[in-house]
Amino acid sequence: SVSGSRAADDEPARNDNEAKKRFLKYLRASLQTVYRHAHWLVVPVPTNQGLHVAQTEPNLIPMRCTSGGKLYLWTTVQFTFVDDPRRPGCRKVGTRHYSHSIYLDSDAHREVLSWQWHPIEGGPTYPHLHVHGGDLGGRSMHKYHLPTGRVFLEDVLLFLLNDELVKPVDPNARSILEANRDRLHRYGTWGTGMAS
Predict the structure, then answer these.
(1) DSSP code of 141?
(2) 67, 51 in Cβ contact below 8 A?
């Protein structure tokens, strides 16, 4: 399987390139559970030395709804390369920002949910959720930053599959996503993702 055995994914990354390849391998496997042709591109952030952004290609990932029609996923992860605290001399990806947003349209005008963490951009420094639709306390719901804890892409995809909002394109989608999320729990250095 793409997620591999625990021993295989425990192999250390000796440099930044190996860390990036491993990071993208698991992101690609997770994303391809809902859209087979998805890829990840990594580009440096020109205004911040050492910061990179991983973004999907295409930018909006179409996902087949169980009720017909489509939902669209827009997701990015900003990261740097850091020393792996568990392995002296080895490298890993360190997340610095993420955004996983669900849209009703292919033009990205009708966002319904957006899980975000962007401590270097101002605003709340904690991971949070934006919900679009309705009012609370006289304000539009999307103005609120509902605390979540860290949310991995795998958490979002499992939510969409488990609540039967989208159809997987891989019959092993749940097991792939659960294995990749478990790997993140083992090797992540902050947050643990949403509860399973």
Answers:
(1) G
(2) no
